[in-house]
Amino acid sequence: MFKLLKQKVSNLMAKTNRLVLLRHGESEFNLKNLFCGWHDAPLSAGGVEQARSIAAANLKSAGMEFDKVYCSKLSRSKRTADLILSELECSFLPIVSDWRLNERHYGNLTGVNKRELANKYGEKQVQHWRRNYDGLPPPIETSNLYFYEICNSSDFQNVPIDEFPLTESMRMCVDRVSPVWEEIKKDVLKGTRVLAVVHGTVARALIKHVEGLSEEQIEKVNIPNSVPIVYEFNMATGQLIGESKYLGDVKYIEEMKQKVAAIGD
Known about the structure:
By secondary structure, the protein is an alpha/beta fold.
């Protein structure tokens, strides 16, 4: 008991800083229940509203302020960040747009309806591709409707040719995100207040790094759109203080987590 009390007092005296992770608002592909990956699907009208009325509103209510924003090269990530900053009246903040924070590449599943795929191959196979740590979708082929758009995107010109994925497992995504996490962590521990607006699997990859979760544990994590996740760090030791905190209505968050976990209609 005394040891626990001593730790709490120590945490209160330590200088701390927060990191906020956020999955972008609903995209047009989310709305249609399609695998998206590196395809640059825009936000849906609902996704725009989520960024404003859920993400920004909850950040504002919690009194969150930021110095720097990280996002991917995909418009659904960048647009969500822009909307949030506009609502918080801080659009002047520096934004780091990094391809390594792009969503996991779903290979030849890109553009395919998840329910139709499950009807063809079975739910177990589709969930293996979606959730198994080493589940690897078939590589994207030239016949895929989005192949040339992805490979020729001007936003991906700086991706080294030997690092440009044609498909990715969760493990590969976690490894890709690792160097960016080190950059974010360095910012946080020197006092920079960071907001990272990313994608579902990338948020999970960052959470694995932040919380030190096992492969089995991260397979079960589901991230709802536009719900801020707050982490607090001891700046001297780099250690987490307490657990993550989701900002928003608890019932809504749990319902959205279940929706993300399911294959959908």
